[in-house]
Structure formats: structure tokens, C-alpha cells
Amino acid sequence: MPRDVMHLSTGELAPVQLGEKRPEWLRVRFPSGPNYTELKQLVRTQKLHTVCEEAHCPNIGDCWERRTATFMILGSVCTRSCGFCAIETGRPPEYDVLEPGRVAAAVAHLGLRHVVITSVARDELEDGGSELFARTIRAVHRRVPGCSVEVLIPDFKGNRESIARVVEARPEILNHNTETVPRLHKRVRVQAKYERTLGLLATAKELDPSLTTKSGIMVGLGERREEIQQVMHDLRAARVDVLTIGQYLRPSREHLPLERYYSPAEFEEMKQEGLALGFSHVESGPLVRSSYHADEQVSTLQRHAG
């Protein structure tokens, strides 16, 4: 067993050093291909942002070549400073009120049947950016009838009106990530609260019981398996439908250290645990991110519903 996945006598793992050789199952190909190039040019010409680029996602080559991307609205500067995230932190400039139309045009150009829309946190805005989310959802539905919309939203500081504003725009899937276990929350998500995340997800389901809700966690930050299981139980208690579990990968030396790599077999075990708890769909694997193969998740959910 490689050293970076070897259990020590204490039952814990030594932190993986930045630059150490990754396991084979975490190798990704260099981004390239005609679809990747086209999407990159489209993002530039339409003055759009994608979380794929801003967060240094390892799946960008695979997703963009499959003509899928996660559009990031409300700019590229976040008001929060999560210890795992590569997105720039600072004071954001004014957002572009015409952005929803450009996102919808990009979705139409790409011929997408499912699109994921996320944003930076905009805590300085009274509505947290919820109005622009609602406008973007409606713009895509108008421009591309039949295209399903998944939103990955910030917590809006738990504001019920902001949550309701997004829900009322009728996205097909509402996602808000839990990210980690309660014990590590203050270190991983400095300005967020575990209970607030659960409350947001429960509120969304209360406002629209037919809405598919989704959440995701990262592993490899020092959590214990029983803590992961507790998060699963808490999410099901909030009536969350879809769960994603992926490997944390340290973006730089300034970010939280990686404590261990989980093996594909462990991810499969966690997937089966989640399904046994009643999640409609569980996406669990080393390279899984909240929007990874989101279009395939929708197809699975539609088959089950049928």
C-alpha cells in the first residue's frame, strides 16, 4: 500500500506533502481537443466566468471536451476565504446585470440540455446575489426550452427570502455543498455554519417539495468515517436527494493540507452507504466534484422518476 494511503499505528495518516506523487486513480489528461478550445473561446468572447477555471478543477479537460461547464455568475472575486478554495478573495466589483442573457446565449450556442450555474459568495449584497440567480435561471429556460438548470448556491447567510427567490425561479436541481464534517467546519469554511447549510437545504425542500436538492462533501481533510456517515444522516434528515463525495486536492501551499488519499474502493463503500440511507443518487469517486457529470445524474434521476 502506498505511503500516502497507509494507516499509521495511531489510526491516522501523516499529511501528504504538496508535490508528492499522486495515486494512479487521480491522474487526469492535459486539457485539449476541439470542444475544449471552442468553449474556452466562447467564455472569453462572452466575458463569462466558469468555476472550472477559477477553482482549478482537475476535470476541466474531460468536462469541456464533453461540452459541459459550470458557469459562475456575479464575478470572480469572493467575499469569503474558505481554506480549500482557489477562487480569489477580496472586495468584488459591481456585477453585470446583463450576465443572465449572456449565460443563456452560451447555453444555446453549446446546445446544452443541462447546465450548472454557480457563483462566488457576495455577502456585501443585501440579497446575496439571489436575484441574479433567479434571472439567470429564467433566462436559460426562456432561451433554451427543455434545458434543465442546476444551481449551486452560496448560503445567503441563511436568509429565507433569498432562498425562496431562487426556488421560485424553478431550477430543476438546487445544490448547496456541505463540504466537510462539523468538527472541521470552522477550519475549512471559516464564514459558514454547518447548521445553516442543513437549514438552507431543508428550507428549499419545504418551499418546493418537488425540487431535487443536492449537496456534496470533500474527504481527505482529517475527517473520520463515522463523521462522514453522520453528515450523510444529517443530509437525509434534511431530505436531500443527491449526494456527491470527492477527494480534496490542495490547490497551493497556502491552502489547507491534504491529510490522506481515499482509494476507489473506499469511495465505492461510501456510495453504497449513501444509497442504503435513501439518497436517490450518489456520485462518489476520487475526481468527483459537485457538478461532475451532472448531466448524467439528471438522466439517472429522470429514469428513476419514470
Could you explain how this protein is built, in words?
This protein has 306 residues and is α/β, with parallel strands linked by helices. The protein has one domain: Aldolase class I (TIM Barrel, Alpha-Beta Barrel). 37% of the residues lie in helices and 14% in strands. The protein contains 11 helices and 10 strands. The protein has helices spanning 34-45, 51-54, 60-65, 99-110, 130-143, 160-168, 185-188, 194-207, 225-237, 264-277, 294-305, and strands at 49-50, 70-73, 77-78, 88-89, 114-119, 148-152, 173-175, 212-219, 242-247, 281-285. An 8-stranded mixed beta sheet has the order 1-2-5-6-7-8-9-10, with helices on both faces. A two-stranded parallel ribbon has the order 3-4. Helix 4 runs parallel beside helix 5 (130-143). The radius of gyration is 19 Å and the shape is globular.
SSE layout and pairing:
Elements (H helix, E strand, L loop, with lengths): L33 H12 L3 E2 H4 L5 H6 L4 E4 L3 E2 L9 E2 L9 H12 L3 E6 L10 H14 L4 E5 L7 H9 L4 E3 L9 H4 L5 H14 L4 E8 L5 H13 L4 E6 L16 H14 L3 E5 L8 H12 L1
Parallel strand pairs: 2-5, 3-4, 5-6, 6-7, 7-8, 8-9, 9-10
Antiparallel strand pairs: 1-2
Helix pairs in contact: 4-5, 5-6, 6-8, 9-10
